[in-house]
Design brief:
This protein is mostly beta strands and 556 residues long. The chain is built from one helix and 48 strands. Among the domains are: 171 residues, no CATH class; 172 residues, Immunoglobulin-like (Sandwich). It has a 23-stranded parallel beta sheet that branches. A twelve-stranded parallel beta sheet has the order 3-6-9-12-16-18-20-23-26-29-32-37, with no helix packed on it.
Length: 556
């Protein structure tokens, strides 16, 4: 019996117009969004997201785009800004500007300026995997409801979540910068905070969590709070690194204003090192904005864990207590080494408190010094975080401080923005990679400077990007076993902006010689800048391509 032709039945054709650039690059304006017109671009933005499904990139061009309803962000997409890309969210008072899809994975949100009346990025539909939130500018929470006023919140486990090189600022009515629940291989690092209510809260069970190289001032409550309220004896995670964070000048501090609160009781391998906590601004004897509730600050650093160490931290000013062992450790207490406290703290520079496992235990491993004269205390611009011996990002990889004013050397206005946060990574015996956030919006380029000692006046330029938006440099052909100090500064025309922090890094191996030629990128992709322009800030020097080069962040 003849079979009916399949073509005799009605055919359903899938509409493909929103997928025509699948896995490629799409531009928001191709879908009807118009910058700076004060009209709602939510529909156009959502259409552009659908067009970039499957590994594509949605580019947000320069200008302000208004988003009046929550955007749904699926897996496998990059949303990337250009210079001056701004998203202005006006969503409900219990809503986020972006909401990630169920069990979201492989999402990057990079290079955007985002403003929201309430929250900004929400991940509330299960765990998230390989989400990267980098190089963004956040301002939020001026008209929302309690605990929705968060720049980033994840209510499921975070796997490989990276929140780095962002700026969180001018949001005193927000709740917190971030709120996370249980983390695996997660980094909240190298960010800038200014005038925010609270740096963040991370609870749950953690495996390889990093809070490194953050810098901030005028925080009201805490720099960070890391807990494990979901764990109990034997069920805690392992590997928490809190390293090289610099916070100072608390805004209206109160008795719950802590520098670092890190009491993940049942966790092992908790390392808290090289942090700087100053209650006041340098040279000041009162807090910015006056005192808050209780008329005093809280603890500079609160500590509790099953095993770990606390070393090399600096406490400045009249915190009610300096470093506090919260509830002790079943293996005999925390180990404390080479910590320093300047000024006096009412309950003591190094002390203990009670908790759910009894009283804390102070275990002095030597080098801890209290009651140092406060007028001899280092200030944030003088702090050098030493990354010597660090061989990967997870073991330190960077530091903060710096930010001294480099302007006034030429006739051009300085670039608009804040001091970048510089990080160093040691690549074996002859190479050091430097990475920083592009925190300026109208720079001509960036200059990397190097010193053998780190002393003022000892830095010389080794590389000039000669183009905006540079964020990476590799210093190659260095001698083994040698320490170098670095800083980076943006410039506009012939005028510098604010210097970054200074980082120190030492190449691996035994020292055999001296010097280092600098480099032109080596293992990084590079493109020559052929504008025929010479650097106004960098002399010719051996080993440098005087046409300049810009490095992408893609390793070959």
């Amino acid at each position: 019996m003849p079979q009916p032709s399949p073509w005799s039945k009605p055919c359903m054709f899938e509409q493909l117009e929103t997928r025509r650039l699948l896995s490629g690059t799409v531009n928001l304006t191709s879908f009807g969004a118009i910058a700076n017109d004060d009209r709602d671009d939510s529909g156009a933005f959502q259409s552009a997201i659908r067009a970039a499904l499957g590994g594509g990139t949605l580019v947000v061009p320069t200008g302000t785009f208004n988003i009046n309803s929550t955007l749904n962000v699926p897996s496998d997409i990059t949303i990337s800004g250009t210079t001056g890309s701004t998203l202005e969210f006006a969503v409900g008072t219990s809503a986020f500007g972006m909401e990630m899809d169920y069990n979201v994975a492989n999402v990057t949100i990079n290079g955007l300026k985002m403003r929201s009346n309430d929250g900004i990025i929400g991940m509330h539909r299960g765990p998230n995997t390989n989400v990267k939130i980098t190089n963004n500018d956040f301002q939020w929470g001026y008209n929302g409801t309690y605990y929705h006023r968060l720049a980033v919140q994840a209510s499921g486990t975070s796997n490989g979540l990276i929140i780095e090189h962002n700026t969180f600022h001018d949001s005193p009515t927000s709740d917190r910068n971030i709120d996370l629940v249980s983390t695996n291989n997660t980094s909240y690092s190298y960010n800038n905070f200014h005038m925010v209510h609270d740096g963040g809260h991370i609870d749950g069970i953690h495996h390889n969590l990093k809070f490194v190289g953050n810098r901030g001032d005028r925080i009201h409550r805490m720099g960070i709070e890391i807990q494990d309220n979901m764990a109990n004896a034997g069920s805690g995670g392992s590997g928490i690194l809190v390293d090289g964070n610099i916070f100072w000048d608390w805004w209206k501090p109160e008795y719950w204003s802590f520098g670092l609160s890190v009491p993940p009781t049942w966790h092992t391998n908790v390392v808290i090192r090289n942090n700087y906590m100053s209650l006041f601004a340098p040279g000041s004897s009162t807090p910015s904005g006056g005192w808050g509730e209780g008329g005093r600050g809280g603890f500079a650093i609160e500590v509790d864990y099953t095993s770990g160490s606390v070393s090399g931290n600096t406490i400045v000013g009249p915190w009610v207590a300096g470093i506090v062992s919260a509830v002790g450790s079943p293996v005999g207490g925390a180990g404390y080494l080479n910590n320093k406290a300047y000024g006096s703290q009412a309950w003591g520079a190094f002390t203990t408190e009670g908790g759910n496992r009894g009283n804390g235990v102070w275990k002095d491993l030597g080098g801890n010094v209290a009651n140092l004269p406060i007028d001899t205390a280092p200030v944030p611009d003088d702090i050098v975080i030493d990354t010597s011996g660090d061989g990967d990002w997870g073991s330190g990889g960077g530091g903060t401080g710096g930010g001294d004013d480099g302007g006034g050397i030429g006739n051009s206005p300085p670039p608009s923005g804040i001091a970048p946060t510089l990080n160093a990574f040691v690549n074996g015996t002859s190479m050091i990679t430097l990475s920083w956030g592009d925190t300026n919006v109208d720079e001509t380029g960036y200059v990397v400077e190097r010193s053998a000692t780190g002393a003022p006046g000892s830095f010389t330029a080794v590389w000039d990007s000669r183009a905006a938006n540079a964020t990476l440099y590799q210093d190659r052909d260095l001698p083994a076993g040698t320490k170098f100090y670095y800083r980076v500064v943006a410039y506009r025309g012939d005028t510098k902006g604010r210097y970054s922090n200074i980082v120190a890094a030492q190449t691996k191996g035994a020292r055999t010689g001296s010097g280092g030629t600098g480099g032109t990128g080596g293992g990084f992709q590079s493109q020559s800048f052929t504008g025929g322009r010479t650097s106004p800030l960098l002399p010719s020097m051996p080993g440098l391509d005087n046409n300049g080069s810009i490095f992408s962040d893609t390793l070959l």
